[in-house]
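Attaching the record inline, Q. Sequence:
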Amino acid sequence: MNFVQPIRDSEKVDAIKEFFKEESDRNYLLFLMGINTGLRISDILKLRVGDVKEKHITIREQKTKKQKWIMITPPLRRALIGYLPGRPDHEFLFKSRQGGNKPIGRSMAYKILRKAASEFKLKDIGTHTMRKTFGYHFYQQTKDVAMLQEIFNHSSPDITLRYIGVNQDGLDHAMSKFKI
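Structure, as predicted:
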């Protein structure tokens, strides 16, 4: 069984950002939003222009129904400054090209990410990869599992570490040293 994985290599994350930047402003912002906020794709896709104009994104999570405030990181803010001008507050941030003011769907978001996965020969990639990538790199930079647990609304630190693949890193390291 394959499980969606985070992108652990920060150079690969940067290369994917560049890939999306050359491809489409919308797809670049989608990827940045995912890896800079840790939001689920269902919450990202319902964002409107007016939701990202302040210092924080304020949403009610679709899955947990909990209210959440997420600070917009400096890299995400820079991308938004370039993307937002001329767009009305009521417009969906990740608007479908099918016409009207409709957001792209989960399946389109998945196709967008699969395109990058194919380009960079990544497997086990899906829409949840962005959330897990955020978590993995947040943990690597802060080592604060309690804060990450709160961001993700997980019930225990063990769940959070397993979710972002840190436990797998430890298992892999131990197995690489094992001999019999």
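The chain has a mean pLDDT of 93. The beta strands are 56-60, 67-71.

More tomorrow.
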